TrEMBL record:
PROSITE patterns, per database record: PROKAR_LIPOPROTEIN (PS51257)
Matching InterPro entries: LprI-like_N
Extent of the signal sequence: 1-17
Stated name of the protein: Lysozyme inhibitor LprI-like N-terminal domain-containing protein
Domain (Lysozyme inhibitor LprI-like N-terminal) ranges: 27-128
Keyword Signal annotated: yes
Keyword check for Signal: yes
Top-rank lineage group of the source organism: Bacteria
Length: 133
């Protein structure tokens, strides 16, 4: 199990450090597994905050774009909310699948889940930002 833990931590470290543009990444300075775990958890929290903001911004844009047809705008907002709930479930299930071979309750498991959720949140933020653009 320890070998799997170290393999996961190495994979996460390299995924955080892979950087073709040679710019500094948030977890690049982590010098041990605890710092890496904390950094990835912080990245997940930040991505969730940005995702919430992107959803709020999208709702505001819909309200403005459909001001003359408020009922249609509300229908679109309802659809965005339903889709977001479905996507949240998909994200949770996908990340559990990605971390399947790691023992639940361990820091490696939580770090893998956080890394997956952060990555998926970033993808979702990009998708949401393109809906009315």
């Amino acid at each position: 199990m320890k070998a799997l833990y170290f393999a996961i931590m190495a994979l996460i470290t390299f995924s955080c450090a892979a950087n073709p543009n040679n710019t500094k990444l948030p977890c690049e300075d982590a010098s041990n597994s605890l710092e890496l775990e904390q950094c990835i958890a912080q990245k997940k929290d930040e991505s969730e905050h940005r995702l919430t903001n992107e959803l709020r911004l999208l709702q505001e844009q819909i309200q403005m774009a459909y001001a003359a047809e408020a009922e249609l705008g509300n229908t679109l907002i309802d659809q965005v909310e339903k889709t977001q709930l479905a996507w949240s479930d998909f994200k949770a299930q996908s990340c559990q699948l990605e971390a399947f071979e790691i023992e639940q309750g361990t820091s490696a498991y939580e770090t893998a889940i956080n890394n997956c959720e952060s990555r998926m949140n970033q993808t979702r933020i990009k998708a949401l930002s393109q809906i009315l653009n």
